[in-house]
Every structure is written in C-alpha cells, then in structure tokens.
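Whiteboard transcription, Tuesday session. T.W. wrote the structure tokens on the left side:
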C-alpha cells in the first residue's frame, strides 16, 4: 500500500506504478500496453535524441466528492497534440486512442490519485517521440506514444500568493513563424538557463515578448498571460504562444461571470494600465503577479522598468474569483455547465 502525504505534494516527476504505451510502425499503432517497466529502449541514433523530435501534453484528473474520477478537457489536449505532431511530421494517435490511453493510465495508477478535499490532483503526461534511427532531417512515420502520470499538489493550499516575473531582454522563447505555438520539447530547452538565472534573482516567472519587435507580450516560459482591466479579461493574440487550455477555459469562465473577453495583441506598455496580471496553465491554474521587471540583460543588475500590481504575496480579487470558479468545476463542486469534465 502506498502512503502519500496528500497535503504536501509538489509538482514533481513522482514515480507511480504504470506507464501505458503504444508504437507506430508500418502504418499502424500497436495495441496499447500497460507496463510497470519505467524505461524505454530505443536506438542511440533515434530522431528524438539528436533532433528533439518530441512533443508532449499535460492535463489533470480529479477525484470528485462522490468518488468519481474526471479528466479535465482531454479532447482539447488530444487536438493540440495532433496539431503539434503535424508540425513535427509525426504520426499521432486520434482523439479516441489519446483519451483511452490517458484513462487507462489513471485507472492503472488509481492508488496515486489524490482523494477529494486536498486540492490535489493527478497530472497526466502524454509523450510522443520519434524513435526512428536516422541522420537525415526529414520526418519518418515511426513513433512511441506513452502516457505517464504523477500526483500533484495544489500550488497554493488555502492561500494563493502573487510572485514576481521578469522580462529577459536578452532571451527569446520563440521565433516569428517558428515553433512557439506548438508543445514541442525544444521550446522548453531554451528556457532552462534563463529560468535558472531568474530564480537565482528571486523571480518566479519569465515573461517573453514577441521576438521580432519586442513591443508585445507573448507568454511566460510555462504558461499564458492574462490581465484584468476593469471588467475586461485581456489575453495576447499571438502566433507564437501555446494555445493554453486553461486560458481558453478562463476566457469562458470570465464570460460566464459577465466579463468582457479581449484576445488581441497586448503592448508591453499596457502593463502599466492593468489592475491585475497573471500566468495561467494546467499545473498552477493561475499564477498572480506582484510585479514585472523589464531587464535589458537578465544576468546584470536591474536597471529597467518595473510594473507593480500588488505587494509580494497579495492577490487581486478577480484572479481569486476566476481561480475559485475554475477549480470548483474541476473538483466537481460547481455545476459543469460546459461539459468539461470527462468521467472515467
Ligand atoms: C509555454 C506554455 N504556455 C502555456 C501553457 C498552458 O497551457 P495549458 O493551459 O494547456 O496547460 C503551458 C503549459 O502548461 C506552457 O508550457
């Protein structure tokens, strides 16, 4: 019997019991296999190792009060993985197979699914990698699709806290007409070092601008950006940002709450006119910002501009309200009027 401290879960690659996997070879997917073997074997020349032919998804499963278990909007993740796989020229499971394998992974690891009431959930991580050994820079129709999962905690417990973000003037996340809007592993590689430096300086998040003109806000290294101005929920329209399912959901929640939703290019200077600003994504749901510093050179002492929203730790009322609403739908406490919960 596994003993897990449900109250103090972080967001880590927690080792559960079972991985569900399937391979695409000779034009078809193999029957999905649930295995307790936590390793993959493939050729050292595989595309994934040399050319980063790799993409992934992230979604959550929740235990509701009545004991039922629901994945949150898995159809959206299935569609996004398909879009990303097309970009990489990879075969991709269809929506039905994607969701069935996510369900199977959660079912096989049920003992690791946090009980209702801890604010915790099961993070499900589908992964698609190119395993064909080759030197040429061309797609090859062979892939491994695997689904792993890990129990994860609520980032905030009872009290949500705001944190600082930095705009790193000497780093970009995505090129214009590049891969920014796809969930490929390579996009994240470029953020490792700037994240390390930012964390050492006390910033939690990196906020990237559009790389061609640096006039507009794109997104954070690991989440989308949104801001509140009066009764408006504002979020960037950009070809270089990942289409976040949490952001999409928050836009719908904001509209349900009577807010106006604006999806449009957001100028950096507008930060000064927002009452609240935050990141949003599956892992944290909402990361409210206390302030954003603009640093021309991330490694050097701060000489740029600063936009302040709240004292460190304090959170605006609208971010709080949106967070409460989305998490109560995910946990099964509020009515799921849009049919976002996919029961297993
Ligand atoms: C770069 C980036 N943007 C946005 C998001 C948020 O997307 P989602 O809400 O689908 O998790 C993520 C991942 O969570 C991300 O890695």
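and on the right, the sequence the group agreed on:
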């Amino acid at each position: 019997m596994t003993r897990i401290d449900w109250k103090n879960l972080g967001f880590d690659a927690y080792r559960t019991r079972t991985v569900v996997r399937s391979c695409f070879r000779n034009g078809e997917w193999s029957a999905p296999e649930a295995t307790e073997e936590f390793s993959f074997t493939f050729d050292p020349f595989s595309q994934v190792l040399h050319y980063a032919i790799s993409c992934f998804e992230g979604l959550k499963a929740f235990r509701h009060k009545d004991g039922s278990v629901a994945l949150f909007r898995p159809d959206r993740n299935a569609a996004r993985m398909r879009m990303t796989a097309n970009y990489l020229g990879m075969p991709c499971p269809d929506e039905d197979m994607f969701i069935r394998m996510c369900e199977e992974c959660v079912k096989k690891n049920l003992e690791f699914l946090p009980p209702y009431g801890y604010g915790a959930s099961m993070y499900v991580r589908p992964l698609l990698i190119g395993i064909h050994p080759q030197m040429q820079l061309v797609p090859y129709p062979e892939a491994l699709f695997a689904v792993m999962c890990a129990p994860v905690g609520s980032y905030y417990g009872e009290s949500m806290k705001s944190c600082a973000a930095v705009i790193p003037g000497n780093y970009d996340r995505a090129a214009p007409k590049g891969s920014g809007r796809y969930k490929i592993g390579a996009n994240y590689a470029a953020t490792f070092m700037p994240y390390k430096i930012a964390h050492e300086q006390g910033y939690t998040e990196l906020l990237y601008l559009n790389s061609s003109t640096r006039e507009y806000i794109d997104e954070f290294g690991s989440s989308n950006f949104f801001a509140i101005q009066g009764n408006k929920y504002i979020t960037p329209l950009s070809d270089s940002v990942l289409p976040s399912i949490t952001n999409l959901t928050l836009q719908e929640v904001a509209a349900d709450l009577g807010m106006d939703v604006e999806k449009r290019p957001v100028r950096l200077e507008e930060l000064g006119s927002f009452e609240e600003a935050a990141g949003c994504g599956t892992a944290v749901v909402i990361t409210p910002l206390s302030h954003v510093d603009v640093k021309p050179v991330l490694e050097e002492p701060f000489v740029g501009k600063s936009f302040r929203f709240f004292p460190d730790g304090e959170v605006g009322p609208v971010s709080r309200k949106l967070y409460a609403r989305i998490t109560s739908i995910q946990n099964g406490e509020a009515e799921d009027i849009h049919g976002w919960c996919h029961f297993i």
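Someone added at the bottom: The two ends are 23 Å apart (CA to CA).
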